[in-house]
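Bug #77: duplicate submission created two jobs. Keeping one. Sequence:
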Amino acid sequence: MSTEAVTYWDDIDLLRVIDELEQKGQTGSLFDGHRLMEAAARGKQLDWQRNPSPFARELVLARNSGYLEYDDQTWYGQPLADPARDPQTWLQQIREIHLTIAGRDRARGRIVMQPTPVSNEDDGHPISQLTLGEIAKAVAEHYDLSELRAFLGESGIPDEFIATATTDDGPRYVLDVLSSLLGAGSAARRALRTFIASWLTDRLLVGPSDDTRTKVTRELARQGWHIRGDRLVVGPRQSTSPEPSAEPESAQICLNGHAINFHVQARPDWSKDFCQNCGERTIVACPTCGKSIPGQDTVVHAYCQYCGAAYPWTEKAARAAKELVHQQGLAEAEEVLVVESIDDLLQMTPASPAAAERVRQFVKKAGPQVGESLRAILVDVVSESVKKIIWPAP
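Kept job's structure:
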């Protein structure tokens, strides 16, 4: 047996193990929970004091989600153990563990909308409550409690976690939701990791200030969490004050502006030739001057800091926004004014606040559908202050 120990159970990896055992006819390992846990360890060393509890939790979550079934009818009137309080006994009691059709599809990646996650993205170690509290406080600044519920739902947080938090205090409510996700199994943790990464990279309706983004990103890096693609993944722990590197860290971004890898030098294995979100080609350098795209601050910038040229995603956003304006049939003079205002928004000039107000008036006149379309185009390439002017919180 390998000397490497099991530290964490991943839900999709567990479903894959069951699927493999069923396909090979090795049903003996599916006879009870203990035998399945040994098979799912894949040769790693089990800790029989610590491993049963998270393994039992994953089985219960998978059954509740309709991915597997098992016989939990005990013999001779023996009471069924509580999987949370006595996971050892409970694993011995459940019998005949098998995938449902939905579980087989999930194990084989047939109903997953993005590439099936790999288990080495998350080793089960925590995100500190202090860091989650920083995120909760920043998120709650933008909304009242009812709006927070809607925002979290629109941002991909499962409904059951949104409903379980009951406090009337906004920051405390968000913290309760995030903490519940952290301790509720790999699928919930994946939702949390995706939410945090999306929030840090301004993919949600609201994002952090520059100072908060820098602080939270550094705290996460110190805890061994880094942004890769669209979510947090485990990686090397970085000290608060790392030694200066001879070669500054660079980023890999797709031509549509999706962040792929902010640690190209440190983690080249995270890089991809094409974006997993949109299929577009990725780049690591400015097409105009050839200088590397900076990755040390984990922000997708709109313009190159070396030559001042717009990155391809900024140019695409500008073209799309101007085309949307053109489609509204404005008078020529009015269209020219709005189009020029879009350039000022993207370049963050002293004229940007006035330009944002003109665009706000255009959105108000054009209607909510046009306003939402314009927001979707510009959300990743304009500043938070500009967003607040054009799309103020209700």
